Amino acid sequence: MESWNERVAAVWDDDAVSDAERIDRIDALARERADGDARALFERAGARDSAGVEVEAEALYRRALDAGLDDEHRPQAVIQLASTLRNLGKVDESLELLRAERERGGPLADAASAFYALTLVTLGKSREAAAIALEALAPHLPRYTRSVTAYARELVDPPR
């Protein structure tokens, strides 16, 4: 028998389901868990976020974070909530959540940087956004890491 996590993953992997079907299937799986279960709330939020139902997603992400997500899903929830907030026009809160997640580090720090850069673009700060994106990319380059990092810094702090 498949575990709950495997069944959730199968719903996300099924490209044939509509947004509404995905929400229904995730909600059904969430009902198998205790009321207020952080992971179930997170999956419900993600299904709505993916379907463009951001207002409902925001509330569910906040509940999931308040309920105490594990170290794997907490950063995902923060990034996804911040992206949802940006889409809802709550750009300052989005930026603050992403800044803190970037500073926290961890395996999703570069993902947080990507969404941080998108949020900066929303604020009309394209140079700063490019600098953040390049700084996140630089360590992954096979060459030119030092040069790209330096150029990224120059975008926001030009030499005098």
Give a brief description.
The protein has 160 residues and is mostly helical. It has helices at residues 4-13, 19-30, 38-50, 54-67, 73-87, 91-104, 109-122, 126-137, 145-156. Helix 5 (73-87) runs antiparallel to helix 6.
Give short descriptive properties of this protein:
160 residues; Serine Threonine Protein Phosphatase 5, Tetratricopeptide repeat; 9 helices; mainly alpha; 72% helix; 0% strand
> How many individual β-strands?
0
Uncertain ranges = none
Major sheet characteristics: none
Q: What is the C-alpha radius of gyration, as a whole number of Å?
A: 18 Å
| Named CATH topology of the largest domain | Serine Threonine Protein Phosphatase 5, Tetratricopeptide repeat
Q: Would you identify the CATH architecture of the largest domain?
A: Alpha Horseshoe
Distance between the termini: 65 Å
Order of helices and strands: HHHHHHHHH
Please count the helical segments: 9
Shape: elongated
What is the CATH H-level superfamily of the largest domain? Tetratricopeptide repeat domain
Mean pLDDT: 96
What's the domain count?
A: 2
What's the CATH first level of the largest domain? Mainly Alpha
User: What is the percentage of strand-forming residues?
Assistant: under 5%
Helix content: over 70%
Computed structural class: mainly alpha
Walkthrough of the structure:
The chain is mainly α and 160 residues long. The protein folds into 2 domains: 4-124, Tetratricopeptide repeat domain (Serine Threonine Protein Phosphatase 5, Tetratricopeptide repeat, Alpha Horseshoe), CATH 1.25.40; 126-160, no CATH class. 72% of the residues lie in helices and 0% in strands. The chain is built from 9 helices and no strands. It has helices at 4-13, 19-30, 38-50, 54-67, 73-87, 91-104, 109-122, 126-137, 145-156. Helix 3 packs parallel to helix 5 and helix 7 packs antiparallel against helix 8. The longest helix is centred in the middle third of the chain and has 15 residues, at 73-87. The protein is elongated, with a radius of gyration of 18 Å. The N and C termini lie far apart (65 Å).
